[in-house]
Amino acid sequence: MLSRFAPMLLVLFTLSATGCSYLFMQAPPRQHARLDTFTCTDSRGWAFVDTGFALMHAAVVVAIAVLASTEGETGDLVLAIPSTATVGVATASAIYGFSTASECDDAYDRLADRQQQAREPRDAGTRRAPPAAEIVAKPWTD
Fold first, then answer.
1. What share of the chain is helix, strand, coil (3-state, %, to 5)?
2. pLDDT tens for residues 17-47?
3. pTM above 0.85, yes or no
4. What element of type H or E holds 123?
């Protein structure tokens, strides 16, 4: 009975070990441009974990294919199916993780710009004196 469910359990276990970016990363909120504070994940750590899983399982698929071709047993190629699925899920999750981190970086940069503009004094129609570097002395002409 267990041998009948073993391939399915292997697939479920393999797929559950990936997708870290999908599970643990938080994208910036859609309305972040109007918010004073928000949180999102700007770290790329989970995306690198997913990339590692994708590379590891890609190596497993290649190893199974090479062993199956050298031994002439194509029945063992069925073992590559869970790893192939894992490569797909982990790659998609890594792409999601890297793009989410980039979006978060951009959102935090825009927030910092808005906060900086809010700290600068507002010009209420009065003209400020130009900085010293902009003052140009004109020589007397007679």
1. 70, 0, 30
2. 678 899 899 999 999 999 999 999 999 999 9
3. no
4. none
The interaxial angle of helices 2-16 and 80-119, nearest 10 deg, is 20
Nearest to 63 by CA among 47, 87, 46: 87
Q: pLDDT grade, residue 97 (50/70/90)?
A: very high
Cα distance between residue 67 and residue 65, in whole Å: 6
Domain that holds residue 71: 49-116
Please, which pLDDT band fits residue 135 given cuts at 50, 70 and 90?
very low
Residue with tokens 């797909």: 88
Nearest-angstrom CA–CA distance, 79 and 21: 26
- Of 65, 115, 69, nearest to 87 (Cα)? 65
Q: Is residue 10 part of a domain?
A: no
Total domain count, the chain:
1
- Residue 74 is assigned to a structural domain of this protein: yes
Which among 79, 93, 64, 86 is positioned nearest to 13, based on CA atoms? 86
